[in-house]
Amino acid sequence: MSQFVDRVVLHVSGGDGGHGVASVHREKFKPLGGPDGGDGGSGGDVVLVVDAQVTTLLEFHRAPHRSAQKGGVGKGGHKDGADGDDVELRVPDGTVVSTPEGEVLADMLGDGTRFVIAAGGRGGLGNASLASARRIAPGFALLGEPGEARTVVLELKTVADVALVGYPSAGKSSLVAAMSAARPKIADYPFTTLTPNLGVVEAGDVRFTIADVPGLIEGASEGRGLGLEFLRHVERCSVIAHVLDTATLEPDRDPVRDLDVILGELGRYEADADTVPLSERPAIVVLNKVDTTDGRDMAELVAPQLRERGYEVFTVSAASHEGLRELGFGMARYVAADRAARARPTAPQRLVLRPTASDDAGFRVTVEEHEGRTLYRVSGGRPERWVRQTDFSNDEAIGYLADRLARAGVEDALYRAGALAGAEVVIGTLADGVIFDWHPTVGGGGTVAGPRGSDVRLEGDATRASRSERRLEHARRMDAKTAARQELASERQAGRWVAPDVTDGTGAADGSGAVDGTGAADGTGAADGAGATDAADGTGAPAPEQAGEQVDRTSGQG
Ligand SMILES: Nc1nc2c(ncn2[C@@H]2O[C@H](COP(=O)(O)OP(=O)(O)OP(=O)(O)O)[C@@H](O)[C@H]2O)c(=O)[nH]1
Ligand SMILES: [Mg+2]
């Protein structure tokens, strides 16, 4: 217990989602039994849980990297991958979770309070789940998403029920040592204690924690000595115990004057706005070192004055243990009263962090210059997620991505931003996004296929075109596509769009370069998918409206 760790930087990552699988049901006399590829399981979450038995953050200091289990890969025969197990990290009551920049994410109070700190990735859908009237037997599956990774700061604020404050060498650490099992450093020079020492005290049936705060001196609020910084450790204490040295040899000090100096400094400490200022907190006085003759005389002299000022006074000796039993029971009374009054949440609070929820619905297109080229960047929760879910070694999967983007209005937005056929479009960040040469569904910036607007439901057509409209639309699309393809071919011949790793722009499977760098695309899903699609009726002849060529991958990372 000697090491007091009240602030740790923790690196957490949720488990990656398992990949979905593309598979086709096989049975005797029924060679094309339909898609039966299962979904990948979700990755496990990393969850913080308040545990009243835990009193320090020491464990995380020793092992600051924690991650949850991956989701299992889907299998044929409609078998879904298993979900990854969550990882529960036990933290003390009163742990405050914040970002490295200082933004508070959660204030964890109450035994059992839970907080999802890094969500696991969703599993990818298997081809059975992707099948629809439009796409009867998909020859692809979606990749699992990588788990969320983040760095947070854990800080312990409710470290002590009782805060021992006072001048250096008043005997605060000696009292912690005498009353609890903790063994802090004790010495007869000032500022022996540099960080608070925490100890657990049991008095009757009350169990509470006491902490000494590094010694305070006059001017601490202006930074003298160790300053007031350490008072944040006792910001939430139930009672302050002023430890006064009755046997000090310094000429200008006596217990009453010491108390006034400390009260003055506490009054200048600004605690959290929602807590009672430290100077107005219940307080008791502990007159220490009465084992010495001078000390006892001094204690007898000042005790009445202090009682007159309304303090409950305990005369003790950390050295001889005199009065410590009474002091323990006295402290327990204050702690119990405060606990009852505060009505600490007995039921655990439920805290769930969904950091991406707010921007999940929309997306933005921005135009940027990068190394002399114009880039159109699409950023937004959904488009970026769809890219992560795409197996770029499978053209049908790329076509599905293109459909999703078009239906969400990304094409519209690109037109509005001024993009023309062949423009470079990046989805996500340059570092781990994917760069496409853009080939719109409809060329020339004229009418745009599909419903406009950003509120379009992704699956299922919100507005149903009539049959003839749709036929017309299809013809128009095919014309536009042919035109775009010809344009592309001539550009390729002119040598403008040749990427080093792609030769013909359709079948090449680099599988890694085009996918983000998080390791989600390890190729397992893709491999399963490729093996199982041999018999799929959809591979050779994708439905015309699938438009697998719309998004034409030419290069990997920018
Ligand atoms: N005689 C006597 N000496 C004591 C008693 N309590 C503490 N001391 C001595 O006082 C000195 C300071 O004790 P600490 O417990 O280190 O004091 P502290 O308040 O923690 O001091 P800082 O950590 O410097 O703020 C040590 O030499 C202790 O042995 C006591 O009850 N009687
Ligand atoms: Mg000390």
Automatic annotation (TrEMBL):
Signal peptide: none annotated. Keywords: Cytoplasm, GTP-binding, Hydrolase, Magnesium, Metal-binding, Nucleotide-binding. GTP binds at residues 166-173, 191-195, 212-215, 288-291, 317-319. Residues 160-336 form the OBG-type G domain. Its cofactor is Mg(2+). It is found in: Cytoplasm. An essential GTPase which binds GTP, GDP and possibly (p)ppGpp with moderate affinity, with high nucleotide exchange rates and a fairly low GTP hydrolysis rate. Plays a role in control of the cell cycle, stress response, ribosome biogenesis and in those bacteria that undergo differentiation, in morphogenesis control. Belongs to the TRAFAC class OBG-HflX-like GTPase superfamily. OBG GTPase family. Monomer. This is GTPase Obg. It comes from Aquipuribacter hungaricus. The gene is obgE.
